[in-house]
Structures are given as C-alpha cells and as structure tokens.
Design goal:
19 helices; binds tryptophan
Length: 448
C-alpha cells in the first residue's frame, strides 16, 4: 500500500491516452450517435457540450485530484476522506458498479468483435443485404457463438490488466489510441464524400430550438456525459492515483473530456451522412450500429472496407474501456486484500465473464424472460448500473469532494489554489453537480 511501490504511468502522454481510452468506447460510437439522433441532433449536441464543460470537466478533475492525493484506488480514497464514519465503505458501490457494467459491456463488445470478424473474414456474407434486423436478432440468439466472442473480449481485457499499469494499460493505449484516431479520421473523410453529407451535418449541428423545452433532453445529456467520460464510478480516481504529481491536472481533465466529446461528434459525422445517404432513420435507437449501419455498408461503394474499418474501430474503443472498468475492481482487491495483480485480474475477469453470461442468454435461450420494468437481462443490468448506481456513487463522490474535503485541500490537490478557475470549480462541485446528479437520480427512480 505504500506509495513507493504504487504503480505509475510512465509518461504524461500515456496517462492521457489511457484516460481517453477509458472514455472513448461504445459510449461514443454506439451510444452517442443514437442518443443524439433520438433527441433531435443539434439541440442535444448544444446541451451536451454545456453539460460536459460545466459538470463533466469539474467532476473529472475532482476524481483525478482525489486519486492522486490519496494515492489509492477509489473505494479506499473515499474511505480516507471518511475515516471514522459509518459511510466509509460507501465507495465500494462504485467498484461494484464498474464490475457490473463490464459484465454486460463485454456482451455488446462481443457482438462488435463478431461483426468486425465478419466484415474482414467473410465480406460476401456481411454485405449480402437483406433484413439486417432479422440477421442481427438471429445472431444474438445463437447459444454459443456470442459467448465465445464475449469470452475473447474478457480474455484480452484480462491479459492487458494483468500486465499492469505501465506495461499493460499504458502500453496498449499508446498504440491502440492512435490507430483508433486514424481509423475514425479516415472514415470521416470518406463520409464527407457521400451525398447525405449536408443533411447529416444539418442534423448534427443545426439545433431545433423547440426541443430545448423538453426536460428529457437534459437528463439524456447528463446521463450520456457521465457514461461517455466514464465518471462517477471511480475509474478516474483509480487512474488519477497512478499519476505522479508533476503535471497540472486541470489541463488534463479538459483535454480528456473534450477529446472524448470530439470522438463522439466525429463518430456522428461518420454515421449520419451515411444514414441519410441511404434514406434511413437516424433516430432508430440502439439498433443504429448493428441494424442500420449494415444496411448502409451493403449499399455503399467500398462497403466492405468501410464496414471492416468501422467495426475494428469500435472493437478497439470497447477494449480500452473494458480495461479501465476491470482495473477498478482489480485495484480494489489488490489494495484491500493484498492480492497479486495476476490473481486479481484472472479471478475477476473470470467472475465478470460468468456474470455477463445471463445478459447474453437473454437474447437467446432466455429471450422471453422479463425483469421488473419489462426489461431484458442486459437492460436491467444497464439500468441498475448506469441509471441507479452511477448517479448514487456520483452523488457520494461529489458530496465528499465538494463538502467534506476541506476546500483548500481540494483546491491544492487539483492544482487550482488561489485561482478564479478554482472558485468556479469548487462552486460547480459543491452546488451544480450535486443538484444535477440528484435530478438524474430522481428521474431514474421514477422509472424503476
Ligand atoms: N466511457 C466508456 C464508453 O464510452 C465506458 C466506460 C468506461 C464507463 N469507464 C466507465 C462508463 C465508467 C461509466 C463509468 O463506452
């Protein structure tokens, strides 16, 4: 537990790329475009940007500051702020939630891997056209194949986490993230040549002001910001704890949050022109990636290449996020129970794979099964983790950061002492973020 033996990022670049790797994931490329699409495009984007700057960046900075100051993973960092309180174990909620997200995230990542393999390995089948919705449903209903891809995803994640912060996570991010950026740029350039480009741009950037009156838009923007940046779960506390105190944190937090947003917007720029070019519906929902895009690829010149690049991109994005989600519980058991990294990653990777199996079977064998609220197993896990535990743990974190941590210490830990920016930061943590998180939580509770 001593800070001399604590693992550290080897370079600032490595830290930035690992954090961006955690942030950029299915949330940007699968979730952001469809949530933006379902909430009217431009109006959503505007609110989203505000939320990222006013809520996302301050909380991200708070998490980094806490982790770096306490030199410990998230649950222990929380406990150290609350030494003798009954609440000192509350940080475990985040650890649990990160594991829960990973369990079903791996199922979706498995679908992505399989689609990547299909476009690369059997393009004729991938581009056969036909009913892409039925093809997707038939695939996810198969008993074993989706589980095999899910297992592969967990195995890769475990292998990277097992190698440690510097040799595993940092090294993987240092070469995977540039590949990711390159693929995304190439796809965006290609999309710009499509006939639907103007319509796509208009959809993504021209706000329909009337939508700003709908409260659902704000809740959706907040939820998306938390999920996409990867806040409130302790991931960024844990990543911050591997950060040596040499570089100021505020710039890093801003870079990471904006970098994540940029990836989401560019993913929108890749997807919407293509969707409009073929007269499809951008507000299609979660099926956008697996149902609408295959139709686009089937009709597009160069669709094989585009499809392969797209799903490869998504595979990489998902993998680096999975790594960060596994690191949270791994760091927890290492610090708390003194397990070796290897033992912690292997056991937790295995356990979370098993926990994800029902989520996968919910689309096949157990397809009729409905949990409270009429949800499928995967939806129920997502609801519990993202809609309930995430705001709950977010509220806990931000109350600790804004109210319990002495103000001057927090400001110092965030490299913001004596600045106006520091006052704004602390104000946001103290009032704005808790209020907004509470409203998200209230919205979720009304949907249980
Ligand atoms: N941000 C990732 C994505 O966009 C997912 C993720 C990683 C996450 N770490 C997280 C979500 C922590 C919530 C909390 O796909």
């Amino acid at each position: 537990m001593s800070s001399q033996t604590r693992e550290q990022w080897q370079s600032h670049r490595g830290f930035l790329l690992a954090a961006v790797g955690s942030a950029v994931g299915l949330g940007d490329i699968w979730r952001f475009p469809y949530v933006a699409g379902a909430n009217g495009g431009g109006a959503f984007l505007l609110v989203y940007l505000l939320v990222v700057l006013l809520v996302g960046v301050p909380l991200l900075l708070g998490e980094f500051a806490l982790g770096r100051r306490m030199q410990s993973e998230s649950a222990t960092a929380v406990a150290r702020l609350l030494p003798s309180s009954r609440w000192r174990h509350a940080g475990v909620v985040g650890v649990f939630a990160a594991g829960l997200i990973l369990a079903y995230y791996a199922v979706i990542a498995g679908w992505v891997f399989r689609y990547a393999a299909l476009y690369i390995g059997s393009p004729a089948q991938a581009l056969a056209g036909g009913d892409s919705a039925a093809a997707f449903q038939a695939y996810v209903a198969r008993p074993l194949e989706p589980l095999a891809w899910q297992l592969l995803g967990m195995a890769l994640t475990t292998a990277i986490v097992c190698k440690g912060v510097e040799k595993g996570i940092e090294k993987a991010s240092l070469w995977l993230m540039p590949v990711l950026a390159l693929l995304l740029t190439a796809l965006a350039v290609h999309s710009a040549t499509l006939p639907g480009i103007r319509q796509g741009l208009r959809f993504l950037f021209l706000p329909d002001w009337s939508l700003l009156a709908s409260p659902g838009l704000y809740v959706a923007a907040l939820g998306q910001a938390f999920f996409s940046i990867g806040l409130a779960m302790g991931v960024m506390v844990t990543y911050g704890s591997y950060q040596p105190a040499t570089r100021p944190l505020p710039g890093a937090a801003l870079t990471i949050a904006l970098g994540d947003t940029l990836f989401g917007v560019i993913a929108g720029l890749v997807i919407f022109p293509a969707v409009f070019s073929f007269g499809l519906d951008p507000a299609q929902g979660a099926g956008l990636t697996f149902v609408v895009l295959p139709q686009v690829f089937a009709q597009m010149a160069g669709g094989t290449l585009f499809g392969a690049a797209f799903f490869l991109l998504l595979s990489i994005a998902a993998l680096t996020s999975m790594v960060s989600l596994l690191e949270v519980p791994v760091a927890y058991v290492m610090q708390r129970w003194g397990w070796s990294r290897q033992r912690a990653s292997l056991r937790l990777g295995g356990l979370l794979f098993v926990l994800g199996i029902p989520a996968s079977l919910g689309f096949g064998m157990w397809t009729g099964l409905r949990l409270p609220g009429g949800r499928s197993i995967l939806d129920a896990m997502d609801f519990l983790a993202v809609d309930l535990l995430l705001p709950l743990n977010g509220l806990l974190l931000v109350l600790l950061l804004g109210w319990l941590w002495p103000r001057h210490e927090a400001l110092q830990a965030a490299d913001l002492q004596g600045s106006r920016l520091g006052r704004a930061w602390h104000f946001s943590l103290r009032y704005l973020v808790p209020l907004l998180v509470m409203s998200v939580l209230a919205g979720s509770l009304s949907r249980t």
